Fold this protein.
Amino acid sequence: MSAKLEVRDSRIYGRGCYALARFPARKKIALYAGETVCGERRIERRLRDQEPDIKVIRLDDDLAIDGAVGGDATAYINHSCAPNAFMRIVPGDKVAFFALRDIEPGEEITVNYRDPDHPPVCRCGAANCRSRPRRRKPSPIKRA
């Protein structure tokens, strides 16, 4: 486990990954750790077995990394509709997390998972949360 990350209870969901050091914007936080899974059927089985706490990140249809096996604190990075980090596939079939903005010690690290394998219901609490009911704007037409 990285000396710069820690796992503890999250207000978003279950356990979360927290910064123990400052991460400047656009700098790498860590690589996603876990077992490499090859083959669409194996990936699908891992996804079914992990419901609802999915720790599988797909690199393509036939390749994924399972943070539940051999993973570290990065497996606990939760979704947020207003994230402070993002992830990218990097050379060597790896996934890296980068700071979207400056992240201070004690902040939970979050990303916006735009992944069909992750549930559409969100509990991040952000003002722009995809699960928050949208307020309807009043009609500009005045009624008599």
Remarks:
- The first strand starts at residue 5 and ends at 9.
